[in-house]
Amino acid sequence: MTPITKIVALFLTSAILWILITAPLWATVFPHSLLVIGIINGLIVAVAAAVTIGWVLAKTDAAHKKIVTALEERAQRDPLTGMLNKWVFRTHLEAAFARARRSEKPFGVLFLDVDRFKDINDFHGHRFGDAALVAIAARLRGVLRSADVAIRYGGDEFAIIVEADEGDTLEAISARIFHAFDAPVDIDHDGLRETFPVKVSTGFSRCSDETTSVDALIEEADKRMYGAKKRNRKTVTHPGAAGMTPRAFQDGRPVRSALMMASLLRRPCPGAATRPPSYGALDGSL
């Protein structure tokens, strides 16, 4: 019996008992026929009141549960990308770790970081950077399975908990996620749809019999991702702007200002590339 049902039953029982207990007192004042009519009317009113109270309480309880559910969902979701956030990552990871211990079903953790994301913000502004993160999250969701858990870990970093199935290995899944960014992503920014190259560095750790804790999994994936990112920083170069060397492009503030102005005005800017800088193909550590 639910709390609402208990409240309604208690009210109805109390009302009926009050009517029956006070009936002999009213019998000394009113004729028998009027007393019977009064009792019947009293019972009808009591039942109607009980039903009304139950309906109001049920509506209030449903509204309260809806608010609580929305707040819990908001607390678990990143407001920008709609992905789960860092605060629930460990809960899902510990659950996967416990399942792996019971069923010996392998799973892994993949960390993914967007390369040169600071340059994206510097050249095109933070609003463009936010739009890029939304597009990246959408690209990730497009290649993940329903069993995979995707997290926005913070900033431009994402984490995915992947579990193998009969038709897919952990390595194949992690490779598919990495190669999802071989093609440019479509970014909706200020009402315009732009195609923009995004490259990522990844680090993958696999839960095995030797894995002692979820912290060890996180540390290994994180270390591999930053190792890949460090290697990629040495290989990534910006192509030179028109009439300029790559070094002048990398070090020259006037070129950066020209690119930002071209992005704001949405028209070619003399002496600077008319498209966003392209990032070279990178190899992540899987």
The gross shape turns out to be elongated
Helix-strand makeup class: alpha+beta
**Average pLDDT over all residues:** 75
Radius of gyration: 32 Å
Largest sheet: 5 strands, mixed
Strand content: 5-15%
Low-pLDDT stretches are: 235-286
Secondary structure: helix percent = 55-70%
* Ends distance: 54 Å
- Please tally the helical runs, counting DSSP H or I stretches of 4 or more residues: 9
**Topology, number of strands:** 7
Give the structure's gist in a few sentences:
This protein has 286 residues and is of the alpha+beta class.
Task: Describe this protein's structure.
The chain has 286 residues and is α+β, with helices and mostly antiparallel strands. Helices cover 58% and strands 14% of the residues. The strands form 2 sheets. It has a 5-stranded mixed beta sheet, with helices on both faces. Helix 1 packs antiparallel against helix 2 (32-76) and helix 4 crosses helix 5. The relative contact order is 0.10. The model is unreliable at 235-286 (pLDDT under 50).
Lay out the secondary structure.
Layout: H1 3-27, H2 32-76, E1 84-85, H3 86-103, E2 107-114, H4 117-124, H5 126-143, E3 149-154, E4 157-163, H6 170-179, E5 185-189, E6 192-196, E7 200-206, H7 214-235, H8 246-251, H9 253-265
Parallel strand pairs: 1-3
Antiparallel strand pairs: 2-4, 2-7, 3-4, 5-6
Helix pairs in contact: 1-2, 4-5
